[in-house]
Write a structure and sequence with these properties.
Blueprint lengths: L2 H5 L1 H12 L19 E5 L14 E5 H17 L1 H4 L1 H19 L1
Antiparallel strand pairs: 1-2
The protein binds zinc ion (2 copies).
The site of one zinc ion has 8 residues, from strand 2 and helix 3.
C-alpha cells in the first residue's frame, strides 16, 4: 500500500498543476483541451523537479514546443555561466592542496 504513495508522486504534480491552472501555455498562450492536453507539460520554474510546492508556485504550464525552448535557453545560459563559476572550486581545491603540502613540509 505504501509504495503507491511516494513512488508515484513524481508524476503527480502534472495532475495537480492541470487542476490548478487554466490549460493555456504560459508562453504562446495556446489553449488546450481533450487529446491536445498531452502537449501541455509542467515546467519547473527553478528547473528542480523535486521542488513541488503544493501551491504550485514552482510550476508553469508550457506546451512542448515552448517547454523545449525554455530548456534550450537554460542550457545555453548554463554553458556560458559556469566558466567563471567553475574556477572557484578549483581555486579552493588548489589552496587546500597547497595547505596540505605545507603541513607535510613542516
Ligand atoms: Zn507554447
Ligand atoms: Zn521544464
Amino acid at each position: 500500500m505504501t509504495r503507491c504513495g511516494k513512488a508515484g508522486s513524481g508524476e503527480n504534480y502534472r495532475e495537480q498543476a492541470l487542476k490548478m491552472f487554466p490549460w493555456v501555455c504560459g508562453r504562446c498562450a495556446r489553449e488546450f483541451s481533450g487529446k491536445q492536453l498531452r502537449e501541455l507539460t509542467v515546467h519547473h520554474k527553478d528547473h528542480n523537479h523535486d521542488n513541488n510546492p503544493p501551491d504550485g508556485s514552482n510550476w508553469e504550464l508550457l506546451c512542448i514546443y515552448c517547454h523545449d525552448n525554455e530548456h534550450q535557453r537554460y542550457l545555453e545560459a548554463d554553458a556560458h555561466g559556469p566558466a567563471g563559476k567553475s574556477s572557484e572550486p578549483a581555486a579552493t581545491y588548489k589552496a587546500f592542496a597547497g595547505l596540505a603540502h605545507m603541513l607535510k613540509d613542516t
